[in-house]
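Run log, item B.
One chain of 165 residues. Sequence copied directly from the ordering sheet:
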Amino acid sequence: MIEYVQAQVKNGVDGKNGTNGINGTNGLTTTETKLDTATQARVSTNANNIFLNTERAENNTRMIQANSQSIDKLNNAFSALKDEVNNNQKEANAGISGAMAMSNIPQVMNNQTVAIGAGIGGYEGENALAVGASTRIGNTVVVKATVSDDTENNVGYGAGLSVGW
């Protein structure tokens, strides 16, 4: 009985393809060959895609590095610009303080010929000190000159003439 089953399972006899269904209806393995060709085509396509993706990844890495350097340069330039704006703001505030200090020096009085005075001014954290003199020339003319120094080490000056009747 075992010999009979083995004979049925045997695939082909005397070098001929079998027809018992073990390897298909005629015992040929052409399906496996077609699968190997299709698999090889997919492997080749995938290998090409991997190569292209690797090139793209390397290119993206270079571009990211270049963009990072550009961003760093922009951040440095922005920081320098911010510092310059802050410095200009301090300079302007100091100048305003100087103008306030000079404008607060008292004027020569009616019964005086010459007056020397000082004034202080402050604006937004900056300060200034000013000194000045005014003189009466006759009954109708007053001349005034002032100078100031502020916390940003700027020196300002001013002069004026008044004629009245």
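Observations after the first pass:
- The domain at 28-165 is CATH 3.30.1300.30 (Pantoate--beta-alanine Ligase; Chain: A,domain 2).
- The longest strand covers residues 126-137.
Flagged for discussion on Thursday.
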